[in-house]
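Data availability (excerpt). The following record was deposited with the supplementary files.
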Amino acid sequence: MHITQESDYAIRIVYCLARSDSRRDARGISEEICVSLRFSLKILGKLVQSGLVTSFKGNRGGYELARPASEITLRNVIEAVEGEYCFSRCLKGDSACCSRGAWGSCAFQRVFSEISQEVNRRLDEVTFAQFLEDPST
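Predicted structure:
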């Protein structure tokens, strides 16, 4: 299992903005993280919509983080582009997702739920401020 390419790029974009002392334009961001401008703009739109990034129009426009890097977690960024992380589609919340008709009473569903909660807990523990402090990033 792995995160999607879109989540990977979103993480790079937020990290790029966290490292910056000023607003960044979309072209500069896309060049720095080696992602097409079109895909970068799509991701930036989702990050703006989620409230993680602020967009500014005009000559002095661009993008910047909407709050400090210490308040933005990996979970925030992944959920901005993917939605809530679930280990299995059977956790989406209704019986239509269960092909066995056992929604709510399935041992697999209980275990998958525990795994999802643990992954989300760990993603919540990692902030972008931690990446800024790590000399290897």
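Summary of structural features: Helices lie at 5-19, 26-33, 37-49, 74-82, 107-125, 128-133.
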